[in-house]
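[PROTEIN RECORD]
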Amino acid sequence: MPRNDLLEQLAERFVSTVVAKLNGSLQANGLKGRRGVAKKSAPAFSRNMVCRVEGCRNKSGGPRWGYICEEHRKKLSKPEQRRAREKWNKTHEAVKSA
């Protein structure tokens, strides 16, 4: 009988030591008992998806289509689209640096 009591005491000490060390490492890592749940990431930035042609407020096709709406992709030539993007970039350059 005394042998079983000794094993039970050793097991209890072992478990309490392991639990204490785990709690300490979780708090040291900033998890504070959250069971390893990942921290929230920073919010993603949103792109300005408006057509780059002056006066147009249509939704653009995004970076794949050079931020030009479907209507202006059909109407304007490639050099005209490029000039519209360059003009838009110049007018919005000050906003980025501010």
